[in-house]
């Protein structure tokens, strides 16, 4: 069976309507987590549930807009167990009525995690944005979920690594074998000096000498002195 970037799941509304949901696009995920992370040590259980329902309302803007206009519509159409499912499927937040912990405690535990807060999302998006498939970052966030973003990053980095590996192999260097911090710099020196001693400036000539800043033939200035 072919692998999947992410799984989709079906939830059922109180009236029996079935909706297919999956990881929220980054644009909506921001709102979901911003709302959910407002749950803190001072939140009551009712307040925690209210914030969870608001998070689900934001998720439904993507998957079922007709019930996303208000918290009341969410409460009219989803029972509490379905609210938990939406949080899990769309944002990876796990809340269970089967646990001994109260809903409030579980929500606080989930919101105290640092993975989302510590994530340098702007840097990751900038790396993917270089592909050139989106006209701005808002369009990118509306197009990609986190699993999709991560998958694209993995493939892009693998391609970049393979390009460097090929360039290195042309000079007889195996960058996978040499894992030292200077592997890439050593390879560039090898190309620059044609495999010769990098400490001997006589090996540098022409444009390569100019690039290095010194060398015989270009870059090494001299003045003829008449006695």
Short overview:
This protein is mainly alpha-helical and 227 residues long. The protein is 51% helix and 4% strand. α2 crosses α4 and α2 crosses α5.
Instruction: Report the average pLDDT across residues.
Output: 79
Question: Structural class, judged by helices and strands?
Answer: mainly alpha
- What radius of gyration results from the CA coordinates? 28 Å
User: Domains counted in the coordinates: how many?
Assistant: 2
Range of strand content: under 5%
Strand order of the largest sheet: 1-2
Total beta strands? 2
Major sheet attributes: 2 strands, antiparallel
What does the secondary structure layout of this molecule look like, with pairings?
Elements: E1 9-12, E2 18-21, H1 26-36, H2 45-63, H3 71-77, H4 80-91, H5 103-111, H6 121-129, H7 137-143, H8 146-169, H9 183-192, H10 206-212
Antiparallel strand pairs: 1-2
Helix pairs in contact: 1-2, 2-4, 2-5, 6-8
Q: What are the key terms here?
A:
227 residues; mainly alpha; 2 domains; two-stranded antiparallel ribbon; elongated; disordered C terminus
Describe what this molecule looks like in 3D:
- The chain is mainly α and 227 residues long.
- It folds into two domains: 103 residues, no CATH class; 92 residues, no CATH class.
- Helix content is 51%, strand content 4%.
- The protein has ten helices and two strands, in the order ββαααααααααα.
- The chain has a two-stranded antiparallel ribbon with strand order 1-2.
- It is elongated and about 65 Å long.
- The C terminus is likely disordered.
């Amino acid at each position: 069976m072919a692998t999947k970037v992410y799984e989709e799941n079906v939830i059922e509304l109180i009236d029996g309507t079935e909706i297919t949901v999956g990881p929220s696009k980054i644009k909506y995920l921001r709102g979901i987590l911003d709302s959910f992370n407002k749950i803190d040590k001072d939140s009551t259980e009712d307040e925690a549930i209210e914030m969870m329902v608001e998070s689900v309302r934001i998720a439904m803007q993507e998957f079922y807009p007709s019930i996303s206009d208000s918290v009341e519509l969410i409460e009219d159409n989803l029972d509490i167990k379905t609210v938990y499912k939406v949080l899990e499927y769309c944002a990876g937040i796990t809340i269970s009525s089967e646990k001994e912990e109260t809903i409030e405690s579980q929500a606080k535990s989930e919101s105290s995690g640092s993975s989302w807060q510590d994530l340098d999302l702007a840097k990751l998006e900038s790396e993917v944005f270089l592909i050139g498939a989106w006209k701005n970052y808002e369009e990118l966030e509306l197009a990609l979920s986190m699993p999709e973003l991560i998958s694209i990053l993995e493939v892009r980095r693998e391609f970049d690594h393979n390009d460097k590996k090929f360039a290195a192999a042309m000079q007889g260097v195996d960058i996978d074998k040499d894992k030292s911090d200077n592997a890439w710099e050593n390879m560039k020196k090898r190309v620059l000096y044609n495999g010769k001693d990098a400490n001997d400036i006589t090996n540098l000539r022409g444009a390569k000498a100019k690039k290095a800043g010194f060398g015989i033939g270009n870059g090494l200035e001299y003045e003829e002195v008449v006695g």
